[in-house]
Design goal:
The complex is a heterotrimer of chains A (330), B (78) and C (343). Chain A is of the alpha/beta class and 330 residues long. Chain A has a single domain, classed as Thiamin diphosphate (ThDP)-binding fold, Pyr/PP domains (Rossmann fold). Helices cover 42% and strands 11% of the residues of chain A. Chain A is built from 11 helices and 9 strands. Chain A has a 7-stranded mixed beta sheet, with helices on both faces. A two-stranded antiparallel sheet of chain A has the order 6-7. In chain A, helix 6 links the parallel strand 4 and strand 5. In chain A, helix 1 packs across helix 3. The longest helix of chain A has 26 residues. With 78 residues, chain B is an all-beta fold. Chain B has one domain: OB fold (Dihydrolipoamide Acetyltransferase, E2P), CATH 2.40.50. In chain B, strands 1-8-6-3 form a 4-stranded antiparallel beta sheet, with no helix packed on it. Chain B has a 4-stranded antiparallel beta sheet with strand order 5-4-2-7, with no helix packed on it. In chain B, strand 4 and strand 5 form a beta hairpin. Chain B is globular. Chain C is an alpha/beta fold and 343 residues long. Chain C folds into 2 domains: 189 residues, Rossmann fold (3-Layer(aba) Sandwich); 129 residues, Rossmann fold (3-Layer(aba) Sandwich), CATH 3.40.50. Chain C has 12 helices and 14 strands. In chain C, helix 3 packs parallel to helix 4 and helix 8 crosses helix 12. Chain C starts with 11 loop residues before the first strand and ends with a helix. The chains are: A alpha/beta (330), B mainly beta (78), C alpha/beta (343). At the A-C interface, loops of A face helix 3 and helix 11 of C.
């Protein structure tokens, strides 16, 4: 199979990485409003925990470029890049992050609990808990005779949860159209992967469940594209699940406010030097698929789109508090 | 003799301001050198302030007040 | 044991430090005590309650775990049964869903199933509570859930003095103890700490008896019963009621299992009125149990129907407008008292 992206796919991946990154840059500064100099999580226009995904954008775009709105994605507590790449309604997503009435859940869920049924996207704040639902959605499609694959994203820490092993086995024994994607950013909060994981690479665990395991090094957009394209094609053809582990990078802390003292000196600077977005931009410029003018246009358009979503969120109202009582049989 | 308790210049990296989240000794109490007297927070990281000398504590910066590196937050009389 | 008075010369601790100090003192005295959990090592716990332990005791006794709660809580049960005294941390109580079998089918039942021949001397410490917009998977209290299931002691301190004494007692206990600490009391400034939780704490080791409530404020018009953060809401409400000329007694439960029904009944027998304040869900929980404990004992002592100020039966919403509206607070307690006096 030829898994070289078309020009259109390349630009789509680049544009969605730029969109996600700019969204998070804006969230980062808005999140800090009301939180300096005293960092109280309850304060500011975006209260609560905030898990940024900057650095991990290649995982999202390299996988989601192969998906249609009908395909299913379950994501993690660090969901923004995947939501952007899956085509989640940006206005409603940002409004949800602000807790507004126009948000995906009217403000009930917040940034760790984004659901957009129109594009079959959901996420959860509990580690490893997206895998079971992905398996089940794939089973549902099989039972209904409907097309579609399910992709479960997770961090490398989730591969040590029971749910990971149970879900992989179930997907394999029933030969379901699922792709399991591990975003290995090397850290589970403060605990390094090598201190928590018995094997250096989680893709090797695929052999325990009789499915292909694929490793993608160096946060490489097009290598992810290729691996994911292969796995998703296999799933669509009824050849069962695949496990992919991607070496990626968390350029920020586990959550905003993280002192990151656990990182070895210089690690973060090194990761920033390898920031995947400037790298991919360079690649596209060198391939003459992009020039400075078209790049500026693309970036400006992405920024304008995000600014519009933020304005939409800021201009929206909160639901009346009593709306908290809806839908749960009080 | 009076000794100032200041926020050490090397307590955290960068020049962000911090906030006193807790005084662990009451105003007017006697403390020994090296006693933990206060906690200062910068974003989510917490840092400890120890008494540089023995003496009776007079608090100058209260809980929830914002402090800079080098700033005097209390004094010790001995 | 009564609370030490606040005064000059008295050292204060946050609950986080009090928990760590109690743990360190027990670890120095008893080589069987060790700590396991996510980020409990060099980081010192996301909520600060293992700070300093890794530096003093090293990686062998202060063990960062993989994100594998079923494995390491199950492992604590096994280690405890084999003569160790593990302290394990479930970072957020909300995460109990991934590992409850180890907790309630093993930790809670193995002593009983062995006819008392197997001991399970372990502490499961876990953070509770919201109020800072962390939404429905990171803000619950679940006091009632744990207290409902037989076989484990459950404690929830409201201040650092109790936290140290209860932690020491929990570690020394031959039974499993669930130690539930509320994030807003922990002394982490980024969680907007309740000042009243940081109180004088003796440096020497001491244990508080698990299963004893305490009257933290005396009064004669109404009994306010709560635990953890709710105690501080009650104390503020009691102050507001005093300004109106009413005298409220505040009972801090400290322990849910065993539950000190005597102290609650004695207080309500004196005041004739009962309001229970609970940040856990309203139905099938702590508040209903407290009221039942009074009413089934003596309904004639009540001058008014008891009331509860509890969390509505909804998943905890993210939006601060909704979450703050749903949380118990002092105003709601005062309102409940006013309603009680009207009816």
């Amino acid at each position: 199979m030829n898994h070289t992206p078309t020009t259109e796919q390349r630009l789509w991946m680049y544009r969605h990485m730029v969109l996600s990154r700019y969204l998070e840059e804006r969230i980062e500064s808005l999140y800090m409003e009301g939180k300096t100099p005293v960092f109280n999580m309850a304060k500011g226009p975006i209260p609560g925990e905030m898990h940024l995904s900057n650095g991990q954008e290649p995982c999202a775009v390299g996988v989601c470029v192969h998906l249609t709105p009908e395909d299913i994605v379950t994501a993690t507590h660090r969901p923004h890049h995947i939501a952007v790449a899956k085509g989640v309604d940006l206005d409603a997503m940002v409004a949800e992050i602000f807790g507004k009435a126009t948000g995906l859940a009217g403000g009930r869920g917040g940034h760790m609990h984004l659901f957009d049924a129109k594009v079959n996207f959901s996420c959860s704040g509990i580690i490893g808990e997206g895998l079971g639902p992905a398996v089940g959605a794939a089973l549902s499609r099989k039972l209904q005779g409907k097309p579609g694959v399910a992709v479960a994203f997770m961090g490398e820490g989730a591969a040590n949860q029971g749910a990971f092993h149970e879900a992989l086995n179930l997907a394999a024994v029933w030969q379901l159209p699922v792709v399991f994607v591990i975003e290995d950013n090397a850290w589970g909060i403060s605990v390094a992967k090598q201190a928590s994981t018995a094997v250096p690479r989680n893709d090797r665990r695929a052999s325990a469940y009789g499915m292909p395991g694929v490793h993608v090094a160096d946060n490489d957009v097009e290598a992810i594209f290729s691996a994911a394209g292969d796995a998703i094609a296999r799933a669509r053809e009824g050849q069962g699940p695949t496990l992919i582990e991607i070496e990626t990078a968390r350029l920020a802390g586990h959550f905003m406010g993280d002192g990151e003292d656990y990182r070895p000196k210089g690690e973060k600077e090194g990761l920033k030097q390898r920031d995947p977005i400037p790298r991919y931009r360079r690649q596209l410029l060198d391939a003459e698929l992009l020039d400075d003018i078209s790049d500026t246009d693309l970036v400006e358009q992405a920024h304008a789109r995000i600014e519009a979503a933020i304005r939409f969120a800021q201009d929206s109202e909160f639901l009346p508090p009593e709306a908290a009582l809806e839908m749960v049989f009080v | 003799m009076s000794t100032a308790i200041t926020v050490p210049d090397d307590l955290w990296e960068g020049d962000s301001e911090g906030v006193i989240t807790a005084w662990l000794v009451n105003d007017g109490a006697e403390v020994a050198q090296g006693d933990l007297v206060a906690e200062v927070m910068v974003e989510k990281a917490q840092y400890e302030i120890e008494a540089p000398a023995a003496g009776v504590l007079t608090i100058a910066k209260q809980e929830d007040e914002v402090v800079e590196k080098g700033e005097t937050i209390a004094s010790l009389e001995s | 044991m009564s609370m030490t008075t606040t005064g000059a010369g008295t050292r204060k601790l946050t609950i986080a430090r009090a928990m760590a100090e109690a743990t360190a003192q027990e670890m120095r005295n008893d080589p069987r005590v060790f700590v396991m959990g996510e980020d409990v090592g060099p980081l010192g716990g996301v909520f600060g309650n293992t700070r300093g332990l890794y530096d003093e005791f090293g990686a062998e006794r202060v063990r960062d775990t993989p994100i594998s709660e079923t494995a390491f809580i199950g492992a604590a049960v096994g280690a405890a049964s084999d003569g160790m005294r593990p302290i394990v941390e479930l970072m957020f109580v909300d995460f109990f869903g991934v590992c409850m079998d180890a907790i309630y089918n093993l930790m809670a039942k193995n002593i009983y199933f062995s006819g008392g021949k197997v001991k399970v001397p372990m502490v499961l410490m876990t953070s509770t509570g919201g109020g800072y917009s962390d939404a429905g998977q990171h803000s619950q209290c679940l006091y009632g859930t744990f207290a409902h299931l037989p076989g484990m002691k459950v404690v929830a301190p409201s201040n650092a003095y109790d936290a140290k004494g209860l932690m020491t007692a929990a570690i020394r206990d031959d039974n499993p103890v669930v130690f539930m600490y509320h994030k807003s009391l922990q002394g982490m400034g980024w969680l907007g700490t309740e000042k009243g939780a940081t109180v004088p704490v003796p440096e020497e080791s001491y244990a508080l008896e698990i299963g004893k409530a305490t009257v933290v404020r005396e009064g004669h018009d109404v009994t306010l019963v709560s635990l953890a953060a709710g105690v501080h809401h009650c104390l503020r409400a009691a102050q507001a009621l005093e300004d109106e000329g009413f005298s409220a007694e505040v009972v801090d439960l400290r322990s849910l299992v065993p539950l000190d029904r005597e102290t609650i009944r004695a207080s309500v027998a004196k005041t004739g009125r009962l309001i229970v304040v609970d940040e856990d869900y309203h139905s099938y929980g702590v508040s209903g149990e407290i009221i039942a404990s009074v009413v089934e004992h003596d309904h004639a002592c009540l001058k008014a129907a008891p009331r509860r100020v509890a969390y509505p039966d909804i998943p905890i919403p993210f939006a601060p407008t909704m979450e703050q509206w749903a949380l118990p607070n002092a105003d709601k307690i005062v309102d409940a008292f006013h309603q009680m006096m009207l009816s």
